[in-house]
Amino acid sequence: MLTYPGTMSRTRPDRLPARKVVSHLGVMLLVSVVLGVVVSGLAIPFAGVLGFAARNVSDSVDELPQALKTEQLPQRTLILDKSGAEIATIYDQNRVNVSLVNISRIMAKAIVSIEDYRFYEHGALDLKGTLRALFTNQASNGVVQGGSSITQQLVKLTLQNQALLKGDKKAVEEATADTYARKLRELRYAIALEKAHSKDWILERYLNTAYFGDSAYGIQAAAQHYFGVNAKDLDLRQSAMLAGLVQSPEAFNPTENPQAARNRRDVVLDRMAQLQVISDRKAARTKKEGLGLDVQPMSNGCVSSRAPFFCDYVISYLRQDPDLGPTPKARMRLLRGGGLTITTTIDTRMQDAAQRAVAAHVYPKDGAIGAIALVQPGTGEVKALAQSRPMGTDAADGQTFLNYTVPEKYGDAAGFQPGSTFKAFVLASAIDQGIPLTTRIPSPSERAFDLGTFNTCDGPYPSSEVYTFHNSTNGPPDPNLYEGTRESINTFFVALEQRTGICEPWKLANAMGIELDKKWEVPSFTLGVADVSPLDMAGAYATFAARGLHCDSHPVTKIEDSEGNLLKEYKPHCAQVIPGDVADAVSNVLEGVTGPGGFGEALAPPQPSAGKTGTTSDNQSVWFVGYTPNMAGAATVAGVNSVGHPVTLNYQTVGGSTIYEAFGSTVAGPIWGDTFKAIAPILPDEDFQLPDSTTVAGIRVPVPYVSSCSSVDNARSVIEGGGLTAADGGFVDSSCPRGTVSYIYPSGGSSLSPGDTVTYYVSDGSPPPPPPKHHNGGGHKGGGGGHGNHGGGHGHGHH
To answer: Which residues form the PASTA domain (predicted)?
Structure first.
């Protein structure tokens, strides 16, 4: 507790009881120490008395550092939506630094009046005040007055703050111990501060450092919290209350102890009047007024955010960015204390629409998770993430901290098997290999396949087992690619994958943003046996909407520091992963799913759209993944119990209705459909580009070769001269000279459609580090089904 001279009566030393004489010898000794400090700069010039080893004290004090490190004060970080509106605040200490010129003059006068009225007249030590406090405290057998100057208080607050932020309990104890050694240490630091900085700097730093209760650190946060104003706009009544708080923020907390806060405020007003800072009349008039509180709630973290799981994704995403610090811990310190402004990609109109759609179809306490992710094609910007279980610790109320909308590395939930939505990768590979869309394949309701006839990237699949795959939908006996996709016929797609090989679809899924290790390169790949997240699938299908240009999903566009300077900009990271005409053909085929007669016809928004349903074995999860030319979304409903383990959706009550048999179009589809119908008015009206009339074997152009280490201008000229679009992929580690082109993607000799994008990557002049060891990830914490090595849970791929 900070107490100050000038407010309490004193007992004359010559009338003290005899029992206090010895104690006063100690006081006089400390006074001598203080005088020695002032005169000789902390060289204590006397011998010890009463067991006080002056030489030892002098030695230990002389060993202290000459200056106190005044590191940047922790400040709160703001997370904004794309338009600049706040969606969350995160901090270790709720603080916004302001300069002294942005603090009202009456506030500065109030704090000086009550804490250190001679602040601008004395040095680091107010000797007069210190002596008065020493005698008064001794006379009262306790600490009733404080003699510390504002500079000394700043030292104490700084040492406490540094210890707290480091989690150093011993340092916290040392910074608050009621010992002469601590006070001498603080005095030495205070002298150094006074030598290095102006009085205005010290007062500014003090007002930004002080704690005002209710998690408000610094005068700006306090002004905003208690009164809803900025520090520069504080009036006398407000300033007096805040100045009174620093002595004991909890005891005088106006939200919990309003009368105590008012009494303390009046003490400040009386002191200001006594010092003639304000008139007696003004003090009396102000004391008649109430506190005038306008308390603004202070949220910290994602739980109270408008988009809690998007907020969580932002923090997890940035926590993994090495540009923000050498370790995750260091990055979190920056995020929670750097006073950053993080502008994100979220569109709160889309977020609200997505959350309403999820909430309408899946309830928090249901034995299922409903979720949807929206990604913008051509940029990878994540526009919305919504799930049915709210963020929180009350599992009985359906709350969770698992983020089911994003990949496991960002949200700790393992994802869910996507079923037939993976058929799109086989479809794209078939088209890219020149298999005509009119190709027909016999597709009986069940068909046996020799697994050894499927080719992987390493050769034939290593199994001689004959496995029978089954259909879960009806369709023509020998459908073409349009019909086989629209009807989601399992035996058709397994046979198509037998023709394309597993390698290209598996590589394509990875290139489209779904991280799949080799264990998923299996014959049942096309039936969707790997666990994925809605964000995975939305980002992948956005590639089709962007005519084969895949852009990595990302939630942040820029970060600014506490001064408003650009710290980092997050530009789209894109690459042409399939030719544009192939993507056009995929979209043309998938339009059949949301078009007349398709499973998703009732879901379609008033704009052109394409999509694919997905259902898994045992109906543990169902999906609908679809897109318009300018927005992609993936919705899922998955059976998950209260601890996150997968269960069947069959006979579960979801959204108030019992599910007897789950389908992607009827259970997950309505979430997608309601979302896209709601956001249709804010999406541009565009149409898909029709595929080439020759079944997309169409016109192709070769990617020209660009010499390694050539200039950017030369690379652009060569690429554009080949009828393609050149795009800057940013800097990469390379042994090429800085500023020259390291490589292009797709590489020279590849085949693309006219106008497709070729990305060039510029060398930063640093040789690439050795490749990291491959990590397969840990155990699942979220949903997902069982996996087999080759069959993988056969029977996946319902419509």
So the answer is: 698-764
